[in-house]
Model the fold of this input.
Amino acid sequence: MIAKATNQHCFVVIYIHTKKASRANVLEVEDSTKKSKHCHSKSVQMGEGKGRICVTGGTGFLGSWIIKSLLEHGYAVNTTIRSDPGRKRDVSFLTNLPGASEKLKIFNADLSDPESFGPAVEGCVGIFHTATPIDFAVNEPEEVVTKRAIDGALGILKAGLKAKTVKRVVYTSSASTVSFSSLEEKDVVDESVWSDVDLLRSVKPFSWSYAVSKVLSEKAVLEFGEQNGLEVTTLVLPFVVGRFVCPKLPDSVERALLLVLGKKEEIGVIRYHMVHVDDVARAHIFLLEHPNPKGRYNCSPFIVPIEEIAEIISAKYPEYQIPALE
Done:
């Protein structure tokens, strides 16, 4: 079943859940971004050194890759990292990126101190808010995690308003904001669906506090944008895979490699909602450049059964002994 396309005519960001996987969907998404003359001209117009973008969470998997993509597209970048008083952080993987010496500035900021983002946002035309507090093990009370996420996100938006140069904010959300619903299962889950916070707090599935924080944060930034005349769009991401420039192996990439590593017993999930990090970066940049994006956008083509992943890896890399799946 083909997932329903969004209302944007340039970049097809398709919905999260389809019961039947189809690789044709991915090809259609890629072709739509390449063939649209409108998108191409807009990208050229905005990408020729005509703006500085603030990317929060610059040392993370997504943040660092988005920085790389922005520099390649001709943008200047301000990025934020959390300060660590106990040690000096090695950010050479960012400063060594092509174009970084001329166009990348790095600032210390922390979601626990929303006002700390002000200097990084000043002078920027756009913000990509990828930073988020992650506590899958629920070591902190959910209320603490949620408050930090909301206060941090709204603090960044307030800094954007104060700067008076920010035209748009793209907030990086998560599939957890649509995956836990009390509604009957659908063939396609679209942007109108939200995870049920009361259900999450009652059932407490794995990473439930993270899911609650993402739902309430996303709703808060959309409401703030609407009330204050700031253009805010949100991008709902599932399991992200692909190359990386950060020094630590990203958790999602490590999980994608479990078959190659022979760790069959750790797989657990039998189907993955998956998107490539290159598509994630392109989606962020498109939503920045498009003349009139609105609201939420889910960013995943289809569900991939683990058996299909095993078949693809075995065919492409026969040198790896992929364990049989029963």
Observations:
- Confidence is low (pLDDT under 50) at residues 1-48.
- The chain has one domain: 23-246+274-303.
- DSSP finds 13 helices and ten strands in the chain.
